[in-house]
Amino acid sequence: MNHPDSVLKFSLGFNGLSFDLDNQHIQLEQGLGFVETNSIRHGVIDELAIEKMIYFIEEIIESQPLRNLKISGIAITSDVAMTQLSELFFSAKKQISRIELEHGFNDFIERLSYYTNQVAPNQLHIFTYFVFVREMMHHLRIEEIQII
Q1: Which candidate, 54, 25, 142, places its Cα nearest to that of 95?
Q2: What domain range is 100 assigned to?
Q3: Is the pTM above the cut of 0.85?
Q4: Are 9 and 20 in contact (CB under 8 A)?
Q5: Residue 74's domain is classified under what CATH number?
Q6: CA–CA distance, 83 with 130 (Å, rounded to integer)
Q7: Cα dist. 142→36, 45, 49, 73, 118 in Å?
Q8: Lower CB density within 10 Å: C or N end of the chain?
Q9: pLDDT truncated to tens, each residue of the chain (148 aa)?
Q10: Which residues have C-beta within 8 Å of that of residue 44, sequence separation ≥ 6?
């Protein structure tokens, strides 16, 4: 099915990232673990850590073949982290628009310590995931994420 309505299927893992569109498969070795290792100090997610995350995520997105993909504006994922994010920020919705995601992200930034205290210390990776998804929506012009 090669048509303009190409839906991006993605999975963001600790050790790698996977993107599928039509017949193209892109696997990246640098996962969320790479972003966290280079951003978070002493297990604390603060504004500096998020700024660093954004920098490394932009580097990953802009330096890879991702930016050449012709995405229809819709991305789908079955990542557990996306479901957790939806439960924490979006009332467990299965479809999240770019505008809703941006509102949720701004709320997260304004209330960082509140949100980071809502999850167990070993669950902090969902915030790295959140930053990655937000940057992906911006850089890859995704208008909606669907959880399948």
Answers
A1: 142
A2: 8-147
A3: yes
A4: yes
A5: 3.30.420.150
A6: 11
A7: 23, 26, 24, 4, 28
A8: N
A9: 344 468 999 999 999 999 999 889 999 998 999 999 999 988 889 999 999 999 999 999 988 788 788 888 999 999 999 999 999 999 999 999 999 999 999 999 999 999 999 988 888 899 999 999 999 999 999 999 999 9
A10: none
Closest CA to 101 of 124, 120, 80, 82: 82
**Is the torsion defined by CA of 74, 45, 27, 58 positive or negative?**
positive
- Is the CB of residue 37 less than 8 Å from the CB of residue 104? no
H helix or E strand, kind and range, residue 53: helix 47-63
Position of tokens 């979006």?
90
Is 122 in contact with 90 (CB distance < 8 Å)? no
Q: Are strands 74-77 and 95-97 parallel, antiparallel or unpaired?
A: unpaired
Amino acid at 118: Q
